[in-house]
Write a structure and sequence with these properties.
Low-confidence stretches: none
Shape: globular
Number of strands: 2
Strand content: under 5%
Strand order of the largest sheet: 1-2
Structural class: mainly alpha
Largest sheet: 2 strands, antiparallel
């Protein structure tokens, strides 16, 4: 009975993260990682593996959601594929490096880093500050380095990179519609490379629970990914019907509370 309850909660997290991603334009990882952290604590998983498993499992769910959202944006012709291909090599290398760094970091440092990031995102949403278009996209080498930085930080935090990629593209005079669509496409190599590497780095952990491969806990990954993909279109529809400005402020306060709770 407890297992069914936990699976139902995972599914609820997936549905909520899907709606939020579709409505607010933020990646699901920002909701999924803290939810997994608290649920893994409740399930009694080893304390020193909690954040590593939350990050890796979140990345695995993002593989599925990134595929779905990228296909939807591609059908509307919004993905700047040449830009995505130029960013991808750096993203792949950075994601692998980020996963290796995450493996070496103590769980408490990962937790503190994520909590600070969550609070910063809440502050950005509350303030409504976005970078002003100031320059053109950098050359190939600049995009390689940028992709590496986005991939590394996103993997360490267990997110799809939208909160990093979209502001960068807006700063480089990319249209918001193309920026969001291209960021979704960039989320796939981030999540895939990060998740695979965290399977490898976590392979030799002896205290992993049943159902885990490396740091990925599959019951949570599947139970979250399926409803997340199904509910994301609902979030996009709600964005056109509800007072999103008010909802964004409520969501920002929610993130701030979660970020502070994670830090504590």
């Amino acid at each position: 009975m407890q297992e069914l309850t936990i699976l139902a909660i995972y599914a609820g997290v997936g549905a909520f993260s899907g709606v939020i991603a579709g409505m607010m334009g933020v990646g699901g990882g920002i909701v999924i990682v803290p939810a997994l952290l608290f649920l893994f604590i409740w399930q009694g998983f080893p304390a020193d593996l909690l954040m590593h498993m939350a990050v890796a499992t979140s990345l695995m769910t993002i593989v599925f959601t990134a595929l779905s959202s990228t296909w939807a944006h591609h059908r509307k012709g919004a993905v700047m594929w040449r830009l995505v291909w130029l960013l991808t090599p750096g993203i792949l290398v950075g994601s692998v490096i980020g996963a290796v760094v995450a493996d070496y970091l103590p769980g408490d440092r990962l937790r503190i880093g994520f909590g600070i990031f969550e609070c910063l995102v809440a502050l950005q949403i509350l303030s409504g500050i976005n970078p002003s278009p100031m320059r053109r996209l950098p050359q190939r080498s600049g995009l390689l380095l940028t992709g590496g930085g986005i991939g590394a930080l996103s993997t360490i935090l267990g997110i799809g990179g939208g909160t990093l990629t979209v502001p960068f593209l807006l700063w480089c005079n990319v249209n918001i519609r193309n920026a969001v669509a291209s960021s979704s496409a960039c989320g796939l190599p981030i999540a895939l490379a990060g998740a695979v590497t965290m399977v490898v780095t976590g392979w030799d952990q002896e205290a992993l629970p049943d159902g885990a491969t490396g740091y990925i806990y599959w019951p949570a990954a599947v139970a979250i990914a399926v409803p997340s993909v199904l509910f994301a279109p609902l979030g996009a529809r709600l964005a056109h019907r509800l007072p999103v400005a008010t909802l964004r402020r409520i969501f920002a306060l929610f993130l701030a509370i979660i970020g502070i709770r994670v830090l504590m």
